[in-house]
Design a protein that fits this description.
alpha+beta, five-stranded mixed sheet, two-stranded antiparallel sheet
Length: 131
């Protein structure tokens, strides 16, 4: 990671871990599940809550950045990757696992500039694994 994006990385890491607390609290609860485009493409209220949490906090801190969120795009928001600094978010990768309380899940957050990934964070809050 280029030193230029240290502030973004450090803030994003903290926010991803905070989002992980939302996931951990919901992990063993009954989940409200809906289908997106196909019967195996699931979304839970926790997916949506975590994505909104990440976008709000990142946009408050870095208002000049753009966002591509899996759940926002599924809800009809335009997916447009430009050369502007952009956060790409999958709030719960492995939603089917999450629905069945299988701990093999993670939050993925990437930061892109000029259509190139500057850094990414992959965090499994249930097993407290970070890549």
């Amino acid at each position: 990671m280029a030193g230029t994006w240290t502030a973004e990385y450090e803030f994003a890491l903290d926010i991803v871990k905070q989002g992980g607390e939302i996931i951990k609290k919901a992990f063993h609860r009954e989940k409200q599940v809906t289908e997106k485009s196909f019967h195996t493409d699931l979304v839970t209220e926790t997916d949506q809550e975590v994505e909104k949490f990440l976008i709000k906090n990142l946009s408050d801190k870095f208002p000049q950045t753009r966002f591509i969120g899996e759940e926002s795009v599924a809800e009809g928001k335009k997916c447009e990757l430009t050369t502007d600094p952009t956060w790409v978010i999958d709030p719960i990768d492995g939603t089917t696992n999450f629905v069945h309380s299988n701990p093999n899940i993670c939050t993925i957050l990437a930061f892109m500039v000029d259509k190139e990934v500057e850094f990414s964070i992959v965090y499994n809050p249930v097993l407290d694994q970070l890549w």
